[in-house]
Amino acid sequence: VGPGYFRAAGISILEGRDFGLEDLGRQDRIVLDTTTTRRLFGDRSPIGLTVSYGANSPATVVGVVATVMDRGPES
Question: Where is pLDDT greater, at 57 or 49?
Answer without folding.
Answer: 49
